[in-house]
Specification:
The structure holds two protein chains of two kinds. By secondary structure, chain A is α/β, with parallel strands linked by helices. Chain A is about 35% helix and about 20% strand. The chains are: A alpha/beta, B alpha/beta. The interface between A and B is small, with 13 and 10 residues.
């Protein structure tokens, strides 16, 4: 066991799976970043360096692709159907629009349209989220779009331990998985076992136990919820934090069980508010736990506007611990702290 | 203590390698209370488990320095114990001086770290604590456990110049998940191989639960390598075992299930905290663990019975048997099956984990047992 960053945890998961299974192949824009050069030395390892060092160890299992998302995501879907386990990296989820057909109409449909006879064991790794001054086209949190599509699994780790275990589980899964990495989390560290391990897809984690309010927080928002919970505890409000870890399938039972206990729900989601995880989970809870609710569910999300380039506006754009704490206080009838 | 007026510090204990601080949960005695050796003074919660801190010396609890709810670093002053005749001013001066000079140990400051060694080509992880000339101690955990079950014991046993090894058996902790045949003989073989690799000719063997069956079986096969044998809530002394626990441990993958399963280990199930459950779940998620546990359970505990009960009758080494009266995994009645030469101790209000739930008592019993051999 040792301390590793979120980025190292992902790199280690890729390395251990390529080692274990030669059908696991990794490709994307600049994943090698030096194909044809003397290997590792020049290898860039993807836009943020997540795959750095892998080319030297697995020269036959990792390759660079042209800047053509529809081509290489389509190639991943085809390769998955014909016996490989591709892990494609599509830099920023904001670019996913150019290959929606390959994802929505092909990969997501194969199992269904071929009568259950086709498997599509592919993973698309992609970055999401605001916070690094990368403006509207590189900062969105578009996981709700993929959660909407039947046939896709959507995974969103909030910490290094989960990142490794969920990525290995995603690679071994026989369905297409969209794996969301928050670019602000890459540097954070945590205890990550050296050995390979899996965390089942569709199993939420209760990050903190509490009796008063349930917060469901997605990805990076888990840390915002934890900070809010610490300050709320000083005022005697005990928050329970549920991290779904997988948005599709969603571990509804764990959320319901928590809300049945607390009677209050706040969902913290970095996505736009409309048709988001926040609105989805609020609706599910309203339908399934209505008689347990003591207050209306609250959503803490980004505003319905593109992520701003201005640093000061971007800081206001992402939900922060204060907004989370205020929402929690409203659900317990304490109003907004001034 | 020959000096009657000495002041004794009651400090924040260090339970296990990762502990850097603890929370003061509750004082168990009032200021002014008379304390005898072994008396529990204050309950402390580490990230792993709650436990009571025992008085380090007889005397009167003169000051409760730490307040309930305080989070304090290892070594911090919790209270002061002294004879009733020591003037208050002296106690105040001691507290003042301690607080002014106390510097918490740096995190990761040179404590023992787990190490690995190849045994028969497979990785075995172990933790070595203490340095001593004498015969080393070797601690073997039970089914599903690892070196962490000795969190309250290993350092205490190493005090006074003993070398104490705790080993992760195959399929467990940080060791290989390849358990080979996964039977008692293969586990015994690993222990012998480990001793060979470490250059340990002879050891005081300690086994908890399944580790006790391994230790006993080892003593039968290699009596010349065993200085003494201590069996704690041990398997291998009878056929009954709680099959529901074994199967429940293998099946449980979610926190709530695991918490219930682990609760069976203790007389007081509230001792099982979040971190303990988390650690076990994280262990169970490692590649190969499910298969390893399944294989060992099928070999050692088929259909909820112990398959292989070693016959200890001919083993003549000094033997200590410790059991919790409320053991829900291996019945305390098995303590009666120990050979006649064994010293048998049954602890009240204690379940299957005496070394954790009654750590102080267990450490004392072991200390006396070892001293009696040396003396």
């Amino acid at each position: 066991m040792s301390r590793k960053s979120y980025m190292q945890a992902i790199n280690e998961a890729l390395a251990q799976e390529m080692e274990r299974d030669p059908t696991v192949v990794v490709f994307g824009e600049d994943n090698v970043g030096g194909t044809g050069s003397p290997g590792e030395i020049d290898a860039w390892g993807g836009v943020m360096g997540v795959t750095k060092g892998l080319y030297g160890k697995f020269p036959n299992q990792i390759l660079d692709t042209p800047i053509s998302e529809s081509a290489f995501i389509g190639a991943a879907a085809g390769a998955a159907c014909s016996g490989l386990r591709p892990v494609a990296e599509l830099m920023f989820v904001d670019f996913m629009g150019v290959c929606f057909d390959q994802i929505f109409n092909q990969a997501a449909k194969f199992r269904y349209m071929f009568g259950g006879k086709a498997r599509t064991p592919m993973v698309i790794r992609t970055m999401y989220g605001a916070g690094i001054r990368a403006a509207s086209q590189h900062s969105q949190a578009l996981y709700p779009i993929f959660t909407h599509i039947p046939g896709l699994k959507v995974v969103i780790p909030s910490n290094p331990y989960d990142a490794k275990g969920l990525l290995i589980a995603s690679i071994r899964d026989d369905d297409p998985v969209i794996f969301f990495e928050n670019k602000v989390l890459y540097a954070i560290e945590g205890e990550v076992p050296d050995e390979p391990y899996t965390i089942p897809l569709g199993e939420a984690e209760i990050v903190r136990e509490g009796e008063d309010v349930t917060i469901v927080a997605i990805g990076r928002m888990v840390s915002m919820a934890e900070q809010a919970a610490a300050s709320l505890a000083d005022d005697g409000i005990e928050v329970e934090i549920v991290d779904p870890r997988t948005l599709s399938p969603l571990d509804e039972d764990t959320i319901y069980e928590s809300v049945e206990n607390t009677g209050r729900l706040v969902v913290v989601d970095e996505a736009y508010p409309r048709c988001s995880m926040a609105s989805d989970i609020s609706a599910l809870v309203a339908q399934n736990c209505f008689e347990h609710l003591k207050a209306a569910p609250k959503m803490v999300t980004a505003p319905h506007t593109p992520p701003p380039f201005s640093g000061s506006l971007e800081d206001l754009y992402v939900p922060d611990p204060e907004k989370v704490a205020n929402a929690v206080r409203e659900t317990v009838g304490q109003g907004v702290a001034s | 203590m020959s000096e009657a007026k000495a002041l004794t510090k009651l400090g924040m204990p260090k339970w296990g390698l990762s502990m850097t601080e603890g929370t003061v949960v509750q004082w168990l005695v009032e200021e002014g209370a008379e304390l005898n050796n072994g008396d529990e003074v204050v309950e402390v919660e580490s990230e792993k488990i709650n436990n009571a801190v025992e008085t380090p010396a007889p005397g009167v609890l003169r000051r409760r320095v730490a307040k309930e709810g305080d989070v304090l670093p290892v070594g911090a002053l919790l209270g002061v114990i002294a004879d009733a005749s020591v003037p208050d001013e002296e106690i105040d001066a001691y507290v003042e001086e301690f607080q002014a000079n106390f510097v918490p140990e740096e995190e990761e400051a040179g404590g023992p770290e787990p190490q690995t060694v190849e045994v028969g080509g497979k990785r075995i992880q172990y933790l070595k604590v203490g340095e001593g000339e004498g015969t080393p101690l070797l601690l073997l955990h039970g089914f599903g456990g690892d070196t962490n079950i000795w969190i309250f014991n290993q350092e205490a046993l190493a005090e006074g110049g003993r070398t104490v090894y705790a080993v992760d058996l195959p399929g467990h902790g940080g060791s290989t998940k390849d358990v080979g045949e996964g039977d008692l003989a293969s586990l015994v073989g690993t222990v012998a191989g480990f001793m060979d690799e470490m250059g340990i000719e002879k050891a005081h063997l300690f086994g908890h639960s399944m580790g006790g069956a391994v230790a006993a079986s080892f003593a039968i096969r290699h009596p010349e390598r065993v200085q003494s044998l201590s069996l704690i809530a041990s398997a291998g002394l009878g056929e009954e075992i709680n099959g529901e626990y074994i199967e429940g441990f293998i099946a449980a993958n979610r926190r709530k299930e695991m918490k219930n399963v682990l609760g069976l280990l203790f007389a007081n199930p509230d001792l099982v905290n979040r971190q303990l459950v988390n650690d076990v779940i994280r262990f169970k998620r490692l590649d190969g663990v499910d298969e390893a546990l399944r294989k060992i359970a099928d070999n050692l505990f088929p259909s909820g019975r112990q398959a292989d009960v070693p016959d200890l009758a001919g083993v003549e080494v000094p033997m200590l048997v410790v059991w919790g009266r409320e053991d829900k995994i291996v019945p305390v009645s098995h303590s009666e099956n120990a050979p006649a030469n064994a010293r048998v101790e049954v602890l009240d209000e204690t379940g299957h984990m005496p070394q954790m739930e009654a750590a102080g008592q267990t450490n004392r019993l072991i200390g006396e047992f070892l001293d009696s051999q040396e003396g």
